[in-house]
Design brief:
Length: 165
C-alpha cells in the first residue's frame, strides 16, 4: 500500500530517501527481499525465545529452572533483535519518506525503544549472570516479563499492519 508522507519525521524521511544508500537498496534486486526474509526470521527467533522466557518468569512451567532456561533463551532473543534492527533499517531506508510519515511505523519504533529499555531494567534486576533467577524471582523481573510479553508481540503486529493501513 502506498503510504502518505505527511507525518512528524517526514522531512527526515525525505532526506534519507534521497541518499545514495537508499537509491542503492531500491535499485538492488536482492537487498530488500533479503532484508525482508531475515526480518521475518529474526521475528521468529525473538518472539519464540522471549515469550517462552517471559512465561517462565511469570510463573508458568515452574518445574523448569529459570536461570539455565534464561541462559539458553537470552542469547537467542538477542540474536533476533540483532537481526531485526539492521534489516528493519534497510527496509525503512528504501521507503523512508512514506514510512517515517506513517503513524504505525513511528509507534512501532517507539515501542521497540520501550521494549529494549525494559530489557536493560530486567537484566539489571536479574543481576550479574542472571543470578537472581535462582531464588524467588524479584518483583522487578516479573513486572518486566509482563511488559515484555505485551510489548514484543505488539511490535510484530504493528510491523505487519504497516503494509495494510
Ligand atoms: C525489534 C523488533 C522488531 C520486530 C518484532 C519487527 C517485526 C516486523 C514484522 C512482523 C513485519 C512484517 C514483516 C512481513 O510480514 O513481511 C515488519 C516489517 C517491517 N519492519 Fe520490523 N520489526 C522489528 C524491528 C524493526 C526496526 C527496528 C525497524 C526499523 C529500523 C523495522 C522496520 C520495518 C519495516 C520498514 C517493515 C516493512 C513495513 C512495510 O512497508 O510493510 N522493524 N517488522
Amino acid at each position: 500500500m502506498e503510504h502518505e508522507a505527511a507525518g512528524l519525521l517526514s522531512p527526515l524521511g525525505v532526506w534519507l530517501e534521497g541518499t545514495a544508500a537508499s537509491a542503492a537498496i531500491r535499485r538492488s534486486l536482492w537487498a530488500y527481499p533479503l532484508a525482508s526474509v531475515l526480518h521475518v526470521l529474526g521475528l521468529g527467533l525473538l518472539l519464540g525465545s522471549i515469550l517462552a522466557l517471559d512465561l517462565r518468569l511469570l510463573g508458568f512451567a515452574r518445574a523448569l529452572p529459570a536461570r539455565p532456561l534464561a541462559r539458553l533463551l537470552v542469547p537467542m532473543a538477542a540474536t533476533g533483535v540483532a537481526l531485526q534492527i539492521p534489516t528493519g533499517a534497510v527496509m525503512l531506508l528504501a521507503d523512508a519518506a512514506a514510512l517515517l510519515g506513517h503513524p504505525l511505523m513511528l509507534a512501532k519504533l517507539a515501542l521497540v525503544a520501550l521494549a529494549l529499555a525494559n530489557v536493560v531494567l530486567v537484566h539489571r534486576a536479574a543481576g550479574p549472570g542472571l543470578a537472581a533467577l535462582d531464588g524467588p524471582l524479584p518483583p522487578a523481573v516479573r513486572r518486566g516479563a509482563l511488559l515484555s510479553l505485551l510489548a514484543w508481540p505488539s511490535v510484530a503486529v504493528l510491523g505487519r499492519a504497516i503494509a495494510y493501513l
